[in-house]
Amino acid sequence: MINKINALLKEVENLKAANAEELEALRIKYLSKKGEISLLMNDFRNVAADQKREVGQHLNKLKEAAQNRINELKASFENVQTTNDDIDLTRTAYPIELGTRHPLSLVKKEICDIFGRLGFSIAEGPEIEDDWHVFSSLNFAEDHPARDMQDTFFIQHNPDVLLRTHTSSVQTRVMENQKPPIRIICPGRVYRNEAISYRAHCFFHQVEALYVDKNVSFADLKQALLFFAKEMFSADTKIRLRPSYFPFTEPSAEMDISCNICGGKGCPFCKGTGWVEILGCGMVDPNVLENCGIDSKVYSGYALGMGIERITNLKYQVKDLRMFSENDVRFLRQFESAN
Ligand code: DAH
Prior knowledge:
By secondary structure, the chain is α+β, with helices and mostly antiparallel strands.
C-alpha cells in the first residue's frame, strides 16, 4: 500500500492543468468522495494494526500534497486572470499625470473655509440673472452707471436678462427665501463688459458674505474682517477701513490690508503706501432688507464682497490676470504644492 501511496504522491506533486475546468477534473479525480485518495482511505481499514501508524502518516502526507498542489494551480489561474484584467495594453507607458486644483479654486476654498469657521454656509445663485436681483433690489438708482450697457452683458437685447456683474445678487435671492438669522457666503463667477488686459477681464470671480440678524453691528463686521485677514494672509496682518460708497450698504467701506509683500514698509506692489485694497463692505442698507421682505426695524446686517483674483494675486503675486484663464500647464503646475 505504501508503494501505491508513494506513486500517487509523485503523480499529484506534478499535476498540471491548462485551465480551471481541467483543474476541477483533477480535484474530482483525487480528492472527491470517490476519488483515488478517498478510496485509499477506505482501504486503510484493512491495514494491519502494526502498520497503521506508518501508512496513516503517508496517507495524510499524500492528501495534504494533493490539496496543496490543487490550491497552487488554482491560485495561479486566479493570478493570471486578475493581472489580465488589470493591464490595459493600450495605456501609454508614461506615468499618468494627476491634475491639480486651479489657483482660483484653491483660494475660493480657503475663503469659504475661513468664513465656514465663523458659521457661514455656502449659497449659490444663477449667473444669468434679472435686473431685480442684480440692481433694483440692491438699491441701484434707475440711472446708476453700473447698469450701463458698457458694464453689463445683456442677453438677447432684453434689458431684464443679463449676466450678473457681482455676486451680491445672491444676497437678494437668499433674503427673499430665508428668514434671519442668515449667515451665508456666496462664491461665483461674474461678468462685466470690459476690454481684456493684464488687469481686467470680462469674467472673474467674487465671494460675497452676508450676515443678517438682530443687533448686527459694524463692530461685528470689523471683527469678522480682521479674523479673515489674519487667517488668509498672516497673523500679523493689519486692516484699515476707508469710507466708501455702495448703493446696497450704508455706511460703506473699503478694506485695505497691510501689504503682505513688504510687511507695510512700502514697496512697488503697494505703490509705497504699505497698504493694499482687498474688498468692499458695509451695513446692509435698510432699503435692501425691506426689498427682500425683512423688517429693517428688527434686523440689521453686514455684507462684504471681494474678488477672488485679487486675493489670489496678493497671495501668489500673479502679475497678469489672463494667466488664470489660459490653461497654461506651466503656470498651473506651479500651484501643485498648494493642493
Ligand atoms: N458688489 C461689489 C462689487 O462688485 C462688492 C461689494 C461691495 C459687495 C460692498 C458687498 C459690499 O457686499 O458690502 O464691486
